[in-house]
Design goal:
Strand order of the largest sheet: 1-3-9-5-6
Radius of gyration: 31 Å
Order of helices and strands: HEEEEEEEEEEH
CATH topology of the domain at 17-138: Jelly Rolls
Number of strands: 10
Shape: elongated
Oligomer: single chain
Number of helices: 2
Length: about 180
């Protein structure tokens, strides 16, 4: 009975350690610039597990986002991190380089107002770390398929054009009647 209780306590301890390692993390962004754009940083250090999955949740308004992530090690394989996937709201980061210098980036991800999710998955040599940056630009007014009101000069040209067409039709009618 004693060994059954100890096994249960050990299993509970392993589950709680696993849930802490995969717990959602929040990114706090800096104050927006005068144009409304802003950036934030994220990362993880001392990754002791051989595989990891970090989830970051944060809010953004409607606009366009981009980001980079990198990890570099010199000679100690324990510091090595290899990304298996990095996604922002399901959009995969493009691979820039792998190996000793891991680098990925993503640009022009359309985001809508509300919660966003960044997921970083990879492997670590036992003491790896990585860092990254996310940036945001607000979306300006979008005018797709909407025509504007012509300027006065355009109106004048259209009126002259219609007048010219009317005059040519009228002169054709006169010449047709004169021949008949």
């Amino acid at each position: 009975m004693k060994s059954l209780v100890l096994a249960g306590v050990a299993a509970l301890a392993l589950v709680s350690v696993g849930s802490v390692a995969n717990a959602a993390q929040t990114i706090n962004f800096g104050a927006p610039a005068s144009d409304g754009s802003f950036t934030g940083t994220f990362g993880d250090t001392g990754i002791t597990t051989s595989t990891f999955s970090d989830t970051y949740t944060f809010n953004m308004p409607t606009g366009v986002a981009g980001g980079t992530i990198s990890s570099i090690f010199t000679t100690d394989e324990a510091n090595n991190v290899n990304f298996t996937s990095v996604t922002l709201d399901g959009t995969a980061f493009d691979i820039g380089s792998t190996g000793q210098v891991e680098f990925r980036s993503v640009n022009n991800v359309l985001v809508t107002d509300g919660p966003q999710t960044l997921v970083v998955k990879g492997t670590s040599g036992g003491a790896g770390s990585y860092s990254g940056t996310l940036s945001f630009e607000g979306a300006g007014p979008i005018t797709i398929g909407v025509g504007g009101v012509p300027e006065p000069a355009s109106w004048a040209l259209m009126i002259l054009g219609f007048g010219g067409i009317g005059a040519s039709l009228r002169s054709r009618r006169r010449s047709v009647h004169a021949l008949a």
